[in-house]
Amino acid sequence: MTPAELTNTDFTTSEDPFALFADWLGEAEKSEINDPTALSLATVDEDGLPNVRMVLLKEFDERGFVFYTNFESQKGTEILATKKAAMCFHWKSLRRQVRVRGPVSVVSDAEADNYYASRARGSRIGAWASKQSRPLESRFALEKEVAKYTAKYPVGEIPRPPYWSGFRIAPVYIEFWKDGAFRLHDRIIFRRAEEGAAWTKTRFYP
Fold it and tell me: What pLDDT does 2 receive?
């Protein structure tokens, strides 16, 4: 199927938002030029001012959507303070969007260790070298930190930093949006009261 044909697929009959998301992500992986797992992540700071940035989805299942970060970063501290977040996937090639909202929990140490071990060695060094979201006097200062930890871990395993792990959003709201002619888009919203509860499905005006 071409991207144009895929966008004509009827998604409104699905009763399982996780299965529908898996289908849409699978199609995006075939059509998106770069990073089909990229998403905008929204959080709120201590003053109630929202922040948004791009991160990568690393896994998902019926427990929720997982991404990894430095817990001392801006997004890390904001999520740990509120235990809530929202994300938005936009697949331009398919003219589709998925919005997710819900409470956030920290993944298990085993999950974080397994994912960290799968990262490129340079990325694991970078997790130690970067004091994410804090002032940096120069690029050279960062390169010195990279050199420092490269020397510290020249061979063998690189342990996961204690401040580096993953978050899982357990959605209570998932919205599937598909582009329509003349701005008459399709919007299907799945809602539930809490994780494990039954979903309700509603069609919204575009």
Answer: 45
- Tell me the CATH number of domain 3-104+165-204, given options 2.30.110.10, 3.40.50.300, 3.40.50.620, 3.90.180.10: 2.30.110.10
The beta strands (E) that lie in the chain are given as: 38-44, 50-56, 59-61, 64-70, 84-91, 96-106, 164-169, 173-178, 186-191, 200-204
Task: Decide if 104 contacts 168 (C-beta within 8 A).
Answer: yes
pLDDT exceeds 60 at position 4: no
- Choosing from 139, 160, 183, 203, which is the catalytic residue? 183
Look up the pTM and report it: 0.91
Q: Which of 74, 33, 82, 36 is nearest to 57 (CA)?
A: 36
For this structure, is 160 an active site residue?
A: no
pLDDT tens by residue, 103-133: 999 999 999 999 999 999 999 999 999 999 9
The count of residues in the chain is 206
